[in-house]
Amino acid sequence: MTVFCFFGLFAVSYRAVFTSFEGLSHVKQTVNTYYKWQESLLSYINPDAIVVTKYADKYIFPERDVIPGLLSDVSYEAVKMLLDHDKELFYYDLKLPEDDKDRLEKMSKYGFGLSAPLWSVEDLELRRIEKNRVPR
User: Labelling 10: which of 29, 46, 49, 68 has CA 20 to 30 A away?
Assistant: First the structure.
């Protein structure tokens, strides 16, 4: 009986640690995917550029300066100030829906916008953050 309980507990533990959605096998596969994406993504981003992202920044952009998403007025203001100092910035996030007027209007309010996607996979994309061009 003790042996049976031991093997039952072992099987349940093995499944929880290695094969569950957040198990080691899944984490390893996810991290390996990030490293594959990293090489491609970094070909677009100069070493001194800054990336605005909420996704996998520790895996994909460990050597880059990162702003953790456009989540508040402070982060929008930081992007504006960096662009005013001619810093190169990129936006790595979920694919932006064409009808996301709120986010696009807020970016425009702070004097910047996004380029067309430079790179995309699954539901993520990389775009350059650019100052709004003032018509002459």
Answer: 29
